[in-house]
Amino acid sequence: MKSLLFGTGGIPISTKNPDIHEGIKQVNSLGLEAMELEFVHSVFIKKDNAEKVNETAEKQKVVLTAHASYYINLNSTEKQKIGASKSRIIQAAKIAYLCGGYSVCFHPGYYMKSTNEQAYEMFRKEIKYVMNSLKDENIKIWVRPETTGKVSQIGSFEECLKISKDVEGVLPCIDFAHLHARTNGKNNTKEEFHEILTKYEKALGKKALENMHIHMSGINYGEKGEKNHLVLKDSDMNYKDLMKTLKEFKCKGVIICESPNLEKDALLMKKAYYSM
Ligand SMILES: [Zn+2]
Q1: CATH, residue 270
Q2: What distance in angstroms lies between residue 121's CA and the mean position of ligand 1's atoms?
Q3: Cα distances (Å, whole numbers) of residue 209 to 181, 183, 190
Q4: In angstroms, what is the span from residue 107 Cα to ligand 1's centroid?
Q5: Ligand 1: distance of its center to the CA of 28 in Å?
Q6: Å from CA of 67 to ligand 1 middle
Q7: For residue 34, which of 63, 124, 125, 207 is within the disulfide window of CB 3.0 to 4.6 Å?
Q8: Nearest Cα residue to 212 out of 228, 193, 230, 225
Q9: In this predicted model, what pLDDT tens digit does every residue of 116-141 receive, in sequence order?
Q10: Overall number of domains in the chain
């Protein structure tokens, strides 16, 4: 990526006659550059329509990312559920790739009753299988476990770095709101953002800094982590210092806004980023 591209998690709210094509056009007319396909309840784009989505995105110069299903648990005690989870990641990756997508993110699952180490081993084993399947089908797209918001969820910052080192083709999707919520209020100062990006670069190299997939929003949280997303100005999320730090580190890639007001906060962050 040549720069940091700002976008919305799904079709902008202000889109008239909302569908995927109108959404992409609206992203462009708002002055944004990216959009995440929300495959969270289903992969709603069919194989036959993917090429058209790709054409629209290219024409509008909008980079597409995707968010895979919410119904994923690679550490389930039921074999069948693990199989279904892997299929959901593969299906989202496949369609996102056919749409010309850059990256697909997902929440790996839950620790359940296993230790963190056991859960990580399952995660690693199953994601390796996913990557091999994608390779066999010649599907080239970044696969990104997301830093998750609840302490019960696999997806700490460290786990996301480790899996990216352990499995080829994998990089983290860094959700800064989740990192903040998961630690009940930490990860929200300039120093902490600096530390996160330093660790990220140290673990994964400069190339990873130039190919980021970031999520941001305001967030409500408690001891167990994430409760719900908020509009930035109704939250304590220190987005200004985050923008400053992303700029200092010359981060490139895509930053997707998941605040309830989608495009408003995406534009607010973009404005902050370019005014510094
Ligand atoms: Zn997510």
Answers
A1: 3.20.20.150
A2: 21
A3: 23, 23, 17
A4: 6
A5: 23
A6: 7
A7: 63
A8: 193
A9: 999 999 999 999 999 999 999 999 99
A10: 1
